[in-house]
Amino acid sequence: MRSSIASSSRSVLAAAVAAPARPAVRVAARGLATSSRAAARLASSGVGLARGVNLGRGAMPRLAGARQQARTMFIQTETTPNEASLKFIPGVDVTNGTTYEFLDLRSALPSPLATRLLTIDGVVGVFFGPDFVTCSKDDSYAWSILKPEVFAVLMEHFSSGAPLFKDGQAADGPEDTRILDTDSEIVGMIKELLETRVRPAIMEDGGDIEYKGFDEETGIVQLKLKGSCRGCSSSSVTLKNGIERMLMHYVPEVQSVEQFIDEEERIALDEFNKLEARLAKKKDDTHDGKQKISDYLSA
Fold this sequence. Notes:
By secondary structure, the protein is α+β, with helices and mostly antiparallel strands.
């Protein structure tokens, strides 16, 4: 019996070596000494194994490339002066150098990425910078809950290479600091300072500013805050102690810098102030009720 098994193994090995067109068999045959039955199975199915390897070669590199891209995609986060805003840095260009802001789903329709981010419960604002994305949240939500969802959306978008805007629906970026032929010398100086000195520093904090006008009679410059600067408690300090001082130093005609608030923002701000007033009144009423009960019990 042993001699028949040995002779069978030798015949299988000889057949495997004699078949140069089957490289998979030659590799597998090295381990045939351990099992004559395994050797026979490999020898009989050698063509199928070879074909299986060849069929897989076309698909595997693409799959490996996609996995490698997903693995190497690393998104950093940076805090901003505004606790309600967080700066996400994907390590790739986000825009072509301009900025875009979305405060509701209607304005975000041209951008699939902005739309997906705003559908996350708690995200109330999205801002695209040249190489970053700033997300702003509702105060009732914690970043520890929102960050994983934002990470997942950003990771999927930038790993896929999808465009930032739908075809033909790319919004025009702000050109507020572009010096026009109709601008006065004073306005031209203000725009140049905002573009070269102020805007880069503001973008470092995940926000931006938009020039809205200059009143030559009053000397007031109006600026709109965007991104993380919107609603930031230190925004007034930034305007007065930072931007205003610099503009007044280089442009003597500037007397003051004020924040520009459009109609939609004004309505939202009024509603917010009303809500705060109602909550404060409710708190006072509750306190008075507790005080009356304590007075009654102590009587």
